[in-house]
Amino acid sequence: MTIKAGDNIPAATLKTMGAEGPTDISTDEIFSGKKVLLFAVPGAFTPGCSLTHLPGYVVNADKIKAAGVDTIACVAVNDVFVMDAWGKAQNAEEILMLADGMGAFTAALGLELDGSAFGLGTRSQRYALIAEDGKVTELCVEEGPGIDVSAAEKMMALL
């Protein structure tokens, strides 16, 4: 079942790149007591994700945070090394880059995507959500290819 507004973010452990290397980070650490704008992409370094989706959040990070968001996070079913390299390549210093390497968090949200036709295997659907203290207040899932409802500008209008 897909998560919806009013639901709590499920407990999960993701990975991020810390000063000492790959670091576990729990959804509790990410969401508890904070307003978080989380967006998900089917894959790091893929065209739409690299040319439009992540860059929209990078260039609008200051405005998003000025609107009361504590954390802007990007998640993908990729490994932590790929997410770290992609974040650096995109100058995404203000974005918490999260690796859901095995897709467990994505599955818990009910937002998996079968990317096998593109040689990707199981990935995440493209979406964005706003959560306050771990409770989803807005969820915008793309219905097909392209970046519309989960774009930074659309999410900013919901803040």
UniProtKB/TrEMBL annotation:
Q: Which CDD domains match?
A: PRX5_like (cd03013)
Kindly indicate whether the keyword Oxidoreductase belongs to this entry: yes
Q: Which UniProt keywords apply?
A: Antioxidant, Oxidoreductase, Peroxidase, Redox-active center
Q: What is its EC number?
A: 1.11.1.27
Where, by residue number, is the active site? Answer: 49
Catalytic activity, reaction form: a hydroperoxide + 2 glutathione = an alcohol + glutathione disulfide + H2O
Of the GO CC terms on this record, one is:
cytoplasm
| First-tier enzyme category under EC | oxidoreductase
Q: Which Pfam families match?
A: Redoxin
Residue ranges occupied by any Thioredoxin domain in the UniProt entry: 3-159
One GO BP annotation of this record: cell redox homeostasis
Quote the PROSITE patterns the UniProt record gives. THIOREDOXIN_2
The record ties this protein, via Gene3D superfamilies, to:
Glutaredoxin (3.40.30.10)
Instruction: Please give one Gene Ontology molecular function term for this protein.
Output: thioredoxin peroxidase activity
Q: What does this protein do?
A: Thiol-specific peroxidase that catalyzes the reduction of hydrogen peroxide and organic hydroperoxides to water and alcohols, respectively. Plays a role in cell protection against oxidative stress by detoxifying peroxides.
- Report the sequence similarity comment from the record: Belongs to the peroxiredoxin family. Prx5 subfamily.
Q: What is this protein called?
A: Glutathione-dependent peroxiredoxin
Q: Which organism is it from?
A: Mangrovimicrobium sediminis
